[in-house]
Amino acid sequence: MLDNGFPLATESNILQELIRPPNILRSVVNTVTGKSNVSDQLPAGQLSNVPWRRSGVRYTNNEAYFDCIEEIDTIIDKSGSTVSAEITGVIDCSIRLSGMPDLTLTFVNPRLLDDVSFHPCVRFKRWESERLLSFVPPDGNFRLMSYHIGSQNLVAIPIFVRPSITFRDNGGKIEVTVGPKQSMGKPIDNLQLSVQLPKSVLNVNLQTTQGSYSFDQQNKRLVWDVGKLQPQTANPKISGNINLQHGVPLPDSNPTITAQFKIEQLAVSGLRVNRLDMYGEKYKPFKGVKYITKAGNFQIRT
C-alpha cells in the first residue's frame, strides 16, 4: 500500500487487516453504499515498533513450525565429477503464538551461512555478533530467511547418474543407471530423469528395472519416472535402442540429462537447528522443524 507515492504497508499481516477479503455480501453492500474493502483506520500494529505483527493475538494452541527447504543447482560431467554445485535455501515459518513473543533460533553450524537475506523482524546486529536469529515474529506464515551456499564450499551430491548415450549410422544405444550417493541413508522420493534427444530421433525401444518411461515424439523428450529410490537396494537402470532417421547427419554432441527429486528430513548443506527459545510469554508452545532437499537445476552431461 502506498501513501502519497511512498510505501506505507508491505507486511501481509497488516494488509490482511487493512483490506478485507471480498465476498458476495460485502460486494453488494459496497455497490449500494459506494464504500470499498479498504478499512478507514490503520491497524494498531502499523503504528508500533513491530509493524509486521498485529496486536491482540490469542490462540488456544500455540505453535511454531519451521521448514528448512534447500535446492541443489549442479552440473556433473560424464565421469561423475562435479563441475559446479551450489545450494539455495529458505526457512519458511508457520507461527501462531499468543501475545508478543520474542524468539531466539540457534543453529548447530551457523558458519555455513555466509550469504543471507532476512525478514525485517530479524535483529541483524545479533546475527552479526552471535550468529543467532532473534526476532518478534509476524503472525501466520512468512519467510524468515533465505540463504545461498556457493561452490567454494563442499556440496554433497545425493544421487549419482552413470549415463552412456551413443549414436551410429544404424541407430543409437542408451544406458543410464541411477542410485543414492550422499543421501545420509534417507530415501529419495519422486525421482525423475529427462533427456532432450536430437530431432533426428524417430523413436526409442527401452527397458527399465524400476519405474516407467515415456517418449514425446513431437518434442523428442524422454522422461524416466523412477519413483522412490531406497538406500541399500539394486540401482535402477534404463537401457535400449534409439532409432534415427536415415540420411540425416549424426548429432554432433550428446544430450544433457536433467534430474528432479525430493528428500525428506535432510538438509544437504548440513544446516541444523539447535534450539528455539521464547521470551516475553510464560506458556510453552509446540515446536517443530522439517528439512527438505530438492533438485533445482540439476544437470548431468553425457
The value of Rg in angstroms is: 26 Å
Oligomeric organization of the protein chains: single chain
Number of helices: 3
User: Helicity level, as a percent range?
Assistant: under 10%
Q: Could you give the order of strands across the largest sheet?
A: 6-8-4-3-18-16-11-14-13
Please tell me about this protein's structure:
The protein has 302 residues and is mainly beta. 8% of the residues lie in helices and 48% in strands. It has helices spanning 12-18, 24-33, 124-130; strands spanning 2-3, 6-7, 63-76, 82-96, 102-107, 116-118, 133-135, 140-149, 159-168, 171-180, 188-196, 201-208, 212-216, 221-229, 237-244, 256-264, 273-279, 286-301. The radius of gyration is 26 Å and the shape is elongated. The model has no long low-confidence stretch (mean pLDDT 87).
Fill in the keyword field for this structure:
single chain; 302 residues; mainly beta; 9-stranded mixed sheet; 3 helices; 8% helix; elongated
Give a concise summary:
The chain is mainly beta. It has helices spanning 12-18, 24-33, 124-130, and strands at 2-3, 6-7, 63-76, 82-96, 102-107, 116-118, 133-135, 140-149, 159-168, 171-180, 188-196, 201-208, 212-216, 221-229, 237-244, 256-264, 273-279, 286-301.
Helices, strands, pairings?
Elements: E1 2-3, E2 6-7, H1 12-18, H2 24-33, E3 63-76, E4 82-96, E5 102-107, E6 116-118, H3 124-130, E7 133-135, E8 140-149, E9 159-168, E10 171-180, E11 188-196, E12 201-208, E13 212-216, E14 221-229, E15 237-244, E16 256-264, E17 273-279, E18 286-301
Parallel strand pairs: 3-18
Antiparallel strand pairs: 1-2, 3-4, 4-8, 5-7, 5-17, 6-8, 9-10, 10-15, 11-14, 11-16, 12-15, 13-14, 16-18
